[in-house]
Amino acid sequence: MRKILLALAFLIIYSAAYNQQPERCTRILFVLDASRSMTGNWESARKIDVARRLLSKMVDSLDKKDNVEMALRVYGHQSYVPPQDCEDTRLEVPFAKNTAGRIQMKLKMLEPKGTTPIAYSLQQAAKDFPNDDCRNVIILITDGIEACEGDPCAVSRDLQKRGIILKPFVVGIGLDPDFKETFNCVGKYYDASNEDRFEDVMGVVISQALNNTTVQVNLLDAYGNPTETNVGMTFYDMFSKKPRYNYFHTINLKGVPDTIILDPLSDYRMVVHTLPPISKDSISISPGTHNIVGIDAPRGTLLLKRPKGAQYRNLQFLVEDLKGELVHVQTVERKERYITGYYNVEVLTLPRLRIDSVEISQSHTTKIQIPEPGIANFSAYQNGYCAVYVIQNDEVKWVANLPEDESFSSLVLLPGKYMAIYRPISAHNVLEAIKKEFEIKSGASVRVTFY
């Protein structure tokens, strides 16, 4: 009992010191083995008597804790063997506040009789949890392995992938050493080889079931120092693939990455929302200790400089990786930070300005200067069809079409040589088209007429 109280006292101190967000409710479902093998002697008494005594103490200690609800499911206690009843499992005490008394009363009445349908019991346990945003934890207490040809590992994986439960705890009571490995895939296994060990294990399990753990995420620069910061992070549960936490990375007043809180019952995939995003899979959190997670995140800055004048005030440009994947759409005169490396930039001017292999280096601002454009003013004696082309290296490339229902229009164009071909809307002969060549100079305007 003293060990249980110490574990709970640690939880209270820990929560006061580190919990940075409202505490979510935790639901603990005890799944207890009451099969015939639990009548076997184990040190001072039968296994079932030791289990009921220590479990009664445990639920009594948890009963008054805020945001905790408990329930009890039992298997192997309704039908004698033989014959073997592989559906012998029942939710004896459903979830509610302050259920310790009801659980203790039910434990006193249990008499082991039957077989060990672990997989079926876990499958049925999925229905025991209300459908809301609580942490759902199963603590399986057993002295034997599956006896009904079910697959507890597959059932556990399915429940975790569906987000119904977190990784279960399995407490083996005097279990044959040859059978211990069979539970590693079900959940986190603890071996209670004797009565004292059983009490210690239950204290540890409850502490982990209720306790969050501190984590420091080091975003490493090109020199291996944790200096990168001010970026969002999402932690996904590796089994369910669902997001569990969202944080914004911060360097605290001591100059080190600030502490965040994670649930140690899950393994995580961390996505850092840099440009482009970076990720790290299979992050395991050690409960009760301060964890440090490192990931390479060297960044530099990209800035597109706007020339004088008002033409490019809201101009945007595309930033792609060298594989051609779009990374970001950035606005002129606005700085953005990218993971170091090489990128292709395409500025949405007329014509589009493409700059390949732009280097982004650690803590450096790469600046791109856009040439100052000019203006082409087009006029015609009637509405018609007109296309504008740029002439580069003896190649003609389409730039834009002018409005068909307007006889006067303008285009902001980069410096260069151009050609416009116009055909009035009333003309039906290709020879009636008019071609005009013109040149755009920075800061100047040119008039192109079709008369």
Structural class: alpha/beta
State the share of residues found in helices, binned by percent: 10-25%
Question: What percentage of the residues does DSSP assign to strands (E)?
Answer: 35-45%
Largest sheet: 6 strands, mixed
Distance between the termini: 101 Å
Give me some keywords for this one.
single chain; 451 residues; alpha/beta; six-stranded mixed beta sheet; four-stranded antiparallel beta sheet; 6 helices
Brief account:
This protein has helices at 2-18, 47-62, 100-109, 118-125, 152-161, 195-210; strands at residues 26-33, 41-42, 45-46, 68-75, 89-96, 135-142, 169-173, 188-192, 213-220, 232-237, 243-248, 259-262, 267-272, 278-284, 291-296, 299-305, 316-320, 326-331, 336-339, 341-347, 353-360, 365-369, 374-380, 384-392, 395-401, 408-413, 416-424, 434-440, 445-450.
Layout of helices and strands, plus pairs?
Layout: H1 2-18, E1 26-33, E2 41-42, E3 45-46, H2 47-62, E4 68-75, E5 89-96, H3 100-109, H4 118-125, E6 135-142, H5 152-161, E7 169-173, E8 188-192, H6 195-210, E9 213-220, E10 232-237, E11 243-248, E12 259-262, E13 267-272, E14 278-284, E15 291-296, E16 299-305, E17 316-320, E18 326-331, E19 336-339, E20 341-347, E21 353-360, E22 365-369, E23 374-380, E24 384-392, E25 395-401, E26 408-413, E27 416-424, E28 434-440, E29 445-450
Parallel strand pairs: 1-4, 1-6, 6-7, 7-8, 9-15, 16-22, 23-29
Antiparallel strand pairs: 2-3, 4-5, 9-12, 10-11, 10-13, 13-14, 16-19, 17-18, 17-20, 20-21, 23-26, 24-25, 24-27, 27-28
